[in-house]
Amino acid sequence: MAATTSLGPRALLASLRVTILQFLADPQWIIGSAAAPVVFALAAFEIYRFSSPELVLFAILGGGMMSMWAQTLYGSGWAIGQDRFLGTLEPTLGAPVDYIWVVGGRVIWNTVSGLLGGAVVVGVVALAYGRPLPIHDPLLFTLLFVLVMLALSTVGLLFTAIFVYSRYAGFVQNIGEFTFYVITGCMFPILILPSWTRPFSLAFPATWALEALRAATFTPYQGLSWGVQGDLLGTLVLSLAYIVVSIGLYRRVVHYLSDTGGGSSDDY
Amino acid sequence: MSEPAVEVRQVRRTYTSRKGFFFQEKVETEALRGVDLQVQPGELFGLLGPNGAGKTTLVKILSTLLLPTSGTAKVLGIDVAEDPRRLRPRIGLVLGGERGLYNRISARENLRYFADLYGVPAATQAGRISKVLDTVGLTEAADRRVEEFSRGMKQKLHLARGILHDPELLFLDEPTIGLDPKSARDMRKLIRDQVANGVTVLLTSHYMFEAEELCQRVAVLSKGRIVARDTVAGLRRLVGGDRTLEVEAYGFEDAEVRRLRALAGVSRIVTEEFGPKQRLTLRVPTGGLGVEEVRAALKGRSEVEIRERRTTLEDVYLDLVEEEAN
User: Fold this and answer.
1) Whose CA is closest to B260, among B280, B275, B274?
2) How many CB pairs (< 8 A) connect A and B?
3) Distances (CA, A) of B181 to A196, B50, B200, B202
4) Are B105 and A21 a contacting pair at CB < 8 A?
5) Is A44 helix (H, G, I), strand (E, B) or coil?
6) Could you tell me if B178 and B97 are in contact, meaning their C-beta atoms sit under 8 angstroms apart?
7) CA angle A239, A242, A248 (to 5 degrees)
8) Are A90 and B64 an interchain contact pair (Cβ–Cβ within 8 Å)?
9) CA distance linking residue B172 with residue B162, whole number of Å
10) Mutate to test the interface with A, among B106, B117, B144 (most CBs of A within 10 A)
């Protein structure tokens, strides 16, 4: 009989590994991870190319973020959907490990592959238009980029759990994608949105992470005025809260699947 | 006697779905209606039943994937609803069919993934994977993508995954469904090997010959209820005889059927029609009624064909399911 202690981290790594293998096995990954970000970047750049350099930079960062979010959200919607589609949900749920570890591995990869998209955006703009991103503190920028990834991963994790309850995950995914673009201020500062939207914006860790990234990149930056440290703290606290809520939600999800028989569409 | 490997008491399971949009109507389907069952350690137990009988629901409950609506189910002494996490490393589940595997990665990678999920020790993992691949005869195909596999190969990989973590009890849900005869025979041998190695097996099947060949005891599930449970020989006795006489003619008079029914030892007559012909199937005990007595009861009708054969589990099953339906 196998030992069952400390299986979670091992399951997370196994899930991450299998997700990467499956990702690479299908050459169409290039569409989501490279082609789509290029389209995002070019569109964003063309809209703002005659504006101030700061605005152009804002657009490039926003384009990268949109691309990363699109990838994360797509991956989140598919994280459980693929198990349902392949019929692997039951064998996976039958394993002696919390399902959240398995989904966690997938969400991490989806966010990392989104990061590849973000890098493509920056690269395309630098190469095609001769405008490299003026990063003053590359170390801080990299750290904050990782933080953005963490923030997106936690949002993705929460979304995967919510998608289990909906048969229309794809529809919810589309709504979520565009709502996120607006509410997190990917392409414009959230300060220009009506004040009633502010609580919704601030409820997303990604909003804070983006603010931190911009505050570190632009000098001066007219953001939420909490500075890099304040934004950083906000991102970490919210990300942690999302993880805690996700763990609770996943316990409910697994119970819901056991209770409703929603793990498969087989006959009885 | 030792503690049963599986003990099910009055298990019921109801699925609820909703119809309509504004005024939703709740639709309830009773998949299991008070099932009692015991499987002993080391036994190969067969669960038979038509589509929709509740076999898969019962297997899912016993393998902790589904909660019973009421009743209790214990596997290896552990309540499946109370402590599923403790039970899972000790049981294996093999669901039949084309699905249930990651198609774009190799068989070995599939097994490696599930070995990690089941906590197969890292130091012995590679060796264990090679061993189960060898056991199911997939060593040569181990590094090929699963999407290139035939149905039979996928089914073997399902079994390899089910036994990967060395479970004490294996649930096999229709393990040979859709397989060609050779692959099905190979699979049955693999199942027998598991039992020979001390693994308790609960098998569901549509195929009566399979249950007859493999199982020490069987239960017949129909419309969510167990309608019979015994050894194969015991079930034959239950339906009135281990011999079957099939009598075919272009229609029988009611009087002829009454005369046959009145013959000593005839416990049951089933009537079927096919084309212009009618077939009467009589269950009779060993040493009882013979072909000549039947011919005499039909007063020498020349066109009548009479065949004698052993009552199969399929006959028993059809009788029981028909009885339940009536």
Assistant:
1) B280
2) 119
3) 68, 21, 25, 22
4) yes
5) helix
6) yes
7) 145
8) no
9) 9
10) B117
Residues within 8 A of B (CB atoms), A 80-139 only: 86-88, 90-97, 102
- Rounded-to-integer distance, Cα A95 and Cα B107, Å: 18
Instruction: Say how many CA atoms lie within 13 Å of B262 toward its Cβ.
Output: 9
d(CA A152, CA A4): 30
Chain A nearest CA to B118, separation (Å):
6
pLDDT over 90 at B71, yes or no: yes
pTM of the model: 0.80
* CA dist., res. A23 & res. A232, Å (int): 31
Three-state SS at A234: helix
State the complex-level ipTM: 0.79
Q: Which helix (H) or strand (E) holds B281?
A: strand B277-284
3-state secondary structure of A118: helix
B318 token code pair: 């059809």
Residue B299 tokens read as 């007063």
What span, in angstroms and rounded, lies between the C-alpha atoms of A17 and A106? 9
Beta bridge partners of B78: B75
Contact A268, B65 (CB under 8 A): no
Whole-angstrom distance, CA of residue B75 vs CA of residue B7: 6
pLDDT in tens, B176-222: 877 778 888 888 888 898 899 899 999 998 777 888 888 889 998 88
* Contacting residues of B for A20, CB less than 8 Å apart: none
- In 3D space, the residue among B98, B180, B152 whose CA is nearest the CA of residue B141 turns out to be B152
Identify the helix (H) or strand (E) that includes residue B196: helix B181-196
Helix axes A53-86, A205-217, angle to 10 degrees: 150
Where does residue B69 rank: exposed (0-12), middle (13-18), buried (19+ CB within 10 A)? middle
The distance of A151 to chain B (nearest Cα, Å) reads 26
- For chain B, what percent of residues have pLDDT higher than 70? 97
- Whether the CB-CB separation of A63 and A121 falls below 8 Å is answered with yes
Alpha-carbon distances, residue B156 vs B95, B112, B212 (angstroms): 11, 16, 21
Contact B59, B8 (CB under 8 A): no
d(CA A97, CA A4): 8
Q: How many domains does chain A have?
A: 1
Domain range for residue A36? 2-267
